[in-house]
Design goal:
By secondary structure, this protein is mainly alpha-helical. The chain folds into 2 domains: about 1-265, no CATH class; about 270-480, no CATH class. About 75% of the residues lie in helices and about 0% in strands. The chain has 20 helices and 2 strands. A two-stranded antiparallel ribbon has the order 1-2. Strand 1 and strand 2 (about 75) form a beta hairpin. Helix 13 packs parallel to helix 17. The chain starts with a helix and ends in a 5-residue tail after the last helix.
Length: about 475
């Protein structure tokens, strides 16, 4: 196949999403302008989900190892796994957001979600500094706009502004770091950079470049100390957007972080920087979550802690640890989408995401409360749910790596202690849902669309089955590269 043919083969999923986004704008603005907001959102979300699933089917039928432009864009088993997960997460976010009423422009909203997903797919497949930067900016700019899509919410505007300002600074740091790496090695290819850094002597400018790159990518995964935007963005952004940021964006960012680490690990200072970020994220994320009264903010600080766990696996940088990171990112993202789906329903009913809004949830909707139980216990790492299995795989891979001879044992001990702390704040939410009696001002039964409840039940079943049969995941992602 020609180079252009290979390039088209790699970019067909992104092309399908772009065509779908344009079609949604034509249908919404050209044919449904006089329809109700609910009908427009339903049609736009259905078309967006159909576009994501079409791209998913094409990808599954055309898998293979392809590299174009000197390896700047690649597709292999790990890239395909990340992209498949991203498209499933996008479809779930769109379907769970059908009943939300945060915008009067559903066509633009769904089109931007698909453009953000296009950026995620490109990020996962990129192996060149320039393409990584452009893909990350496509993703980030779409998410900045989506965060502000609730035009009548001051919290949404504040969240978007903070996200944009911190994102702009992180992009500048990352671009400076990339430029220094290019100056040191004379190339933007990750594979060539790895070869150059292996033989290069340590120079102060190299360490500066590594720190700048770590700052830029640390922002994307919400790792401390580059996490400041996350709690306010998770709280103020529309719930489906917050779910997309916490799921698909994380999968794409960790997928490219694995590839970047393969190039930068030979340089002294990269592993140490990742370990410091991991330790800070685990400690700060878990301790800060203890004092939160908003479930969204609890999930935000939880996300920071989970980023720390995954950074441990990336710092170990072995075949097993890289595989564990990708598995962790995918299953964490799936579970988080489910948790945000429950939060969206409760918030729509009670008008708040505070802990007291979840009081009496088990009496008002036992099935919804059961799904919340599954999601939060999986995030806490309780067996037999998938969250326990991926955490075990992650920590075991770190202990089996060369990192165990120096930092590994201490960092895994810290991570296990952080997981124990996390159980407390997850149980606080579950205590409200299952033990605390509900307020008399709330309806006895929750108003839930059958479609929403069905999706949440299916996600909960997937979380349980993947924990009981983890071999399914290992067969799906046999190689990381």
């Amino acid at each position: 196949m020609s180079t252009y043919g290979n390039l088209l083969a790699i970019l067909w999923p992104e092309s399908i999403l772009e065509i779908a986004s344009l079609a949604i704008l034509v249908v919404d603005l050209g044919f449904m302008r006089r329809a109700s907001s609910a009908a427009r959102m339903s049609v736009a979300s259905a078309l967006g989900s159909l576009g994501a699933l079409t791209a998913l089917l094409w990808l599954l039928m055309h898998t293979g190892n392809i590299a174009v432009m000197g390896g700047a864009l690649v597709t292999n088993s790990s890239v395909v796994a990340a992209q498949v997960g991203i498209m499933i997460l996008t479809a779930l976010v769109l379907l769970l957001g059908v009943s939300t009423r945060f915008t009067r422009n559903p066509g633009e909203y769904v089109a931007l979600v698909l453009l953000a997903t296009t950026g995620m797919l490109l990020v996962a497949a990129s192996r060149d500094l320039l393409i990584i930067f452009v893909a990350l900016e496509l993703l980030s700019l779409s998410l900045y706009v989506l965060s502000a899509f609730s035009k009548h919410s001051a919290a949404s505007s504040e969240a978007a502004l903070k996200y944009y300002l911190f994102g702009g600074m992180s992009a500048a740091f990352m671009l400076f770091g990339f430029s220094y790496l290019y100056g040191i090695t004379g190339t933007t290819s990750l594979q060539a950079i790895a070869a150059s850094l292996t033989s290069a002597s340590l120079a102060p400018i190299t360490l500066v470049a590594l720190v700048l790159v770590a700052a830029g990518l640390g922002f994307k995964v919400a790792a401390a100390p580059f996490h400041i935007w996350a709690p306010d963005t998770y709280l103020g952004a529309p719930t489906p957007v917050a779910a997309l940021i916490a799921s698909g964006s994380k999968v794409a960012s960790f997928a490219v972080l694995i590839a970047v680490t393969a190039a930068l690990a030979p340089a002294w200072g990269w592993t140490e920087t990742l370990l410091w970020m991991a330790g800070a994220s685990i400690v700060l994320g878990n301790l800060a979550a203890l004092v939160q009264s908003s479930v969204r903010r609890i999930l935000a600080y939880s996300a920071i802690a989970h980023a720390g766990y995954m950074l441990l696996g990336i710092a170990a940088h072995t075949f097993a640890s890289d595989q564990a990171v990708l598995l962790y990112a995918l299953t964490y993202a799936l579970t988080t989408v489910g948790a945000f789906g429950v939060v969206a329903i409760v918030e729509r009913d009670a008008g708040s995401d505070r802990l007291d809004a979840f009081a009496g949830l088990s009496a008002r909707s036992p099935l919804l409360a059961a799904t919340l139980l599954v999601f939060l216990l999986s995030l806490a790492g309780i067996p037999p749910l998938v969250g326990f299995w991926v955490k075990f795989q992650m920590f075991a891979s770190v202990l089996r790596s060369p990192l165990a001879a120096s930092w590994g044992i201490g960092m895994v001990t810290l991570a296990i202690a952080g997981s124990a702390v996390s159980l407390y704040y997850y149980l606080q939410v579950l205590k409200c849902a299952w033990v605390t009696p509900g307020s008399s001002r709330l309806a006895v039964r929750l108003a839930i669309q059958p479609r929403e409840l069905l999706l949440l039940v299916l996600i909960a079943i997937a979380v349980i089955l993947l924990g009981i049969f983890p071999g399914w995941l290992l067969q799906w992602i046999p190689v990381v590269g």
